[in-house]
Design a protein that fits this description.
Number of strands: 5
Bound molecules: flavin mononucleotide
Strand content: 15-25%
Order of helices and strands: EHEHEHHEHEH
CATH architecture: 3-Layer(aba) Sandwich
Shape: globular
Strand order of the largest sheet: 2-1-3-4-5
Length: 191
Amino acid sequence: MLKVLGILGSPRYGGNSDMLLDSALEGAKEGGAEVEKIRLCDLKISPCIECHGCDETGECIVEDDMQILYPKIVASDRLFLASPIFFMNVSAQTKAMIDRCQCIWVRRYVLKQTIGKGREHRKGFFLAVGGSKNPEKFMGAEKTIRAFFATLDFTYEKDLLIAGVDEMGGIIKHPSALDDARNLGREIASV
Ligand SMILES: Cc1cc2nc3c(=O)[nH]c(=O)nc-3n(C[C@H](O)[C@H](O)[C@H](O)COP(=O)(O)O)c2cc1C
């Protein structure tokens, strides 16, 4: 059974990226995958303090809830990362989690280890919601997530970038976003 991990970077419970992620995970569950959802806001995650404590081992020495998240990220076959766009990039909660994966960067690029089952197998999906209609606002976030997925040995398989949705729960009125996410979840669970 494929392990699908969903990580939510929005601070809004029941917000737009939360609903988008739920639809994707429901689809994945319907497709037969084992699904787990993590809200970064429920965890205590300090930003990377650039202590270089991971340089030799690829293990982060900061004792907080990232220690719970690392093994889940490494064990997952599919990752849905969902974030709102904040100032042309992902949320601070998402970026803190990403920066704390510097230890996995060490494993991958310094210690030359394969992460989990490796990039041929592991697939990452980026779900993002932004208030403005300008499609350029996703460019910064997409670059960040491409680098993040590559570090974690995930292929950047697909994204759903939803523009022009701002108010709480406004994504319900979008003509296709939630259906697209559910269908994507179903598709990736059965591969
Ligand atoms: C601090 C902050 C910064 C934001 N910056 C942007 C931005 O640069 N571009 C954009 O399109 N929307 C921006 N927004 C709007 C959010 O992306 C939008 O409200 C989104 O639907 C929130 O998703 P959520 O409900 O999943 O948190 C910003 C909102 C906040 C609170």
